[in-house]
Specification:
Number of helices of chain B: 2
Oligomer: heterodimer
Shape of chain A: elongated
CATH architecture of the largest domain in chain A: 3-Layer(aba) Sandwich
Number of domains of chain A: 3
CATH topology of the largest domain in chain A: Rossmann fold
Structural class of chain B: mainly beta
Helix content of chain A: 10-25%
Helix content of chain B: under 10%
Shape of chain B: elongated
CATH class of the largest domain in chain A: Alpha Beta
Strand content of chain B: 35-45%
Strand content of chain A: over 45%
Distance between the termini of chain B: 34 Å
Strand order of the largest sheet of chain A: 22-24-25-27-28-29-30-31
Chain lengths: 540, 364
Amino acid sequence: MFRGLAIAMCLLCGIARADDSIATYAIVVGSNAGGPGQAELRYAEDDARKVAQVLTELGGYSPAQVDVVVHPTPDQLRARLAELESHVAADVAAGRQARVFFYYSGHARAQAIDLGNGDLPLTELRERLFKLPATLTVVVLDACQSGAFSRIKGAVPAADFSFSSRQHLDAAGIAVLASSSGSELSQESEQLHGSYFTHNLLVGLRGAGDANNDGQVTIDEAYRYAYNQTLLETAETAVGGQHVTFEADLKGHGEVPLSFPRAASAAVVLPPAMQGKALVSDHRQRAVVAEIYKAKGSPVRIALAPGEYDVLVRDGDTLAHCDVVAPGTVDLATCRRESIVTSATKGGGFLHPYRIELGAGVGSEHHDAYTTNLTNFGYSEDSSMSSSTLQVTALRQIDRHVYVGAQLARSSMPDWSKGITGTAPLMEELTWSATTFGVVGRAMWPFKSAPRADFGLYAQGMLGAGIGISDVRETTGKLDGQSNFGFAASGGAGLYIDLIWGVGVLAGYEYDYAPVVKDLIGNTHAVGGNRITAALSLAF
Amino acid sequence: MRAISLLVIAAAASQLGSTDCGDHAIKDDGFDLWCGDTLCDWKIERGMIQDVPTWHAGDHGVALVGDDVAIEQVSPVASSDGTCIELDLMANVDANVDAVLNVDVFDDGVIDLVEHLPTGTWAPTTFQMRMPDNYAGVRFEIAKTGTGNAELANIGATVLKTGGCLGQPAMQIANRPLAVPCDDSAQCASGMCAPNPVISPESASDVCVACGSNSCGSGDVCGASRPVSPLRGDPIECIAAASVPLAGQCASDADCASGICKSHMCSTCRSDADCGSGETCDVAWTDSDTFIDFAPYECAPGARRRASGEPCVTNNDCQSGQCDGTSLSTCWDGRSCATAADCPYSELDQTTCTLVGVQGGSCH
């Protein structure tokens, strides 16, 4: 079917943005919301904004022509489409040609896109987009089972990609890029801070997809790039490989360029000598803007906004950290190189799947039958002391928001003492502590991302066992100790900040309960109570 | 003179048994101090005791072992400390055991209050005792009869400075022995309550006495006898006139063989006028040397001026360097003693008994 794909529109060659005879319109839709049974997406709306940015920076669209629609209702989207239809009809009536770019990122099912607050049937969307009187309409769908948009018509997802757009230069009509086949799930990436498909599509449009190095990225080049990269990256995930699909009904002459990276005012150039998987991120925003495999031999130009960028290049077991200012070329001589610990590379797509935390807590200690008994036996609590806890926690991320792991904690309680008057006055002092070990489950929700830090909430629980030790020591040095065992549990919540390089800080509240200290009478002390906690974390 | 007054006031307080010890009324109220197999600060009256763990292996208690066991401790607690004593008992007593706390006010051997300890396993028990308005010294006795187990971890006797004992009437202690505080004669076994003539003449405190100014027979005087308890001062009773030797405690000149009672000690001079030329009348030993506040007065003490046969209290008084007589040790209040057990309390501890010189001596 792709042989029927024609790419070019002479009208569009050489950046048509300045040509008043061609009207350009883009509707870019993003919706994180999910329908019943669907989890909320994290990056769909961000992806839409990124697409709009690339369209205006590199695609020849002025900002006024790009309609970014975030989290719309079905009726709101219909209204935007109706507005578009009237604009295009007016242009056609006025003798102007029109090109339209429609992008949607969000949830979808086989029959409809899910906007969270309602569905828009794919048949309706398809019918409205296909009936547009535009000279060229490009539709990009980044949604689960978005390939069904084409299947409605009987289109078959591309199992292989081998056509050459250069053989089909005469084209006007409609082309549809869909992030997955009609039966596949589309996936987001924590590492990329976006969906695999949109990320790769945008990287391709920024220049990485310019296979013939002619300074523009055509729709078939963009598709080729997005298809290969998305399949390659999603093949490593738990969900499995994701196949980008392409449907086209175009005729005419010339290619269909979607972006013009060479015309961009700024770009990062990866030099010919560079080889390996390159990750380009905005230094200020810490956002990944490109992830490509760079082969040795020819340069790769990635059009980007002027600014500072970090380039990480992995080649085998070596990782190179490079700094570059766009426009500019990466200077390999100034890159910092280090070895890679190979075991830390997998992890289901999580950026930092492991966390080690060293924490401390202070707070009030339980007062119970055990401590009442101490008072009855003549002991007094040292009111200047507070109960304190030191703990080490190791966690592994198993889901976007969920971690599991283990925790080792040691709690020390305020001393109790008794002064003994008499022939040889002395003090008896009770020092006691509890050491607990247990499994930990934690949920972490980021709510704000700053240039160099992520802020969020966490809640966690621990269940395990512990040993309680109580020592009665006399000032003469005589010491008698007792040990007891029991279960232990804790629960808490708080705030966290994950800083650059995986270092972070947590602060919160925790309630500990560990009935692990017993006396000879039968009273049990539940070690713990209310705690204010703080911890340093290292994620890797 | 000022220093003397302060000493006298301090002595008065001590004589009344004041502990100045804060809240605690007895020593080792947790039965934690063991000297071998016995408690250091408790006296075993009868039976056997054993060191046992209580709530923790490191916390000591005492088990009363046998069918008939009693331990006791004398406390100097006095009305100046407070009149409400609270006892916080932690005991582990079997049901077939009768364990009691006996309270003997004035330590005269008469049990004035009996509290039965509740049976049970380490159940805390608290009760308060309203002491007499005027008392000095208490003997606490814990006794057990029966074959079962009786262990004690704490007695926690504290004097409540404020509050406590609300609505409780004060204990009425009649038949009080000599030299203990009293408010009226009916409280005394002797039937006589009079101002205390010894040690604390400036105190308004009255004590039970055995005689008055004209109540003794021929050849006797109403004077100071030897104390019978560290909790009490000198009993005032009929004694033979001029029977108290030099450096003995006295109530009046008539008590002393020397005929001079100065600062409650039989002395050889009352003032410099009683001494020879160039000699001064001064204390035989000072508190800075001995920590003893009351000493006899003599002329030129320690100046080696006394000739053979003249009265002396130290060897340094004599030209020969030897004062013949009975070796004398005294407590800080001047009473003679054999050991510290004879001496009054300072806080909860008894004061020292110090060898100071010779009683009723004469130069060799």
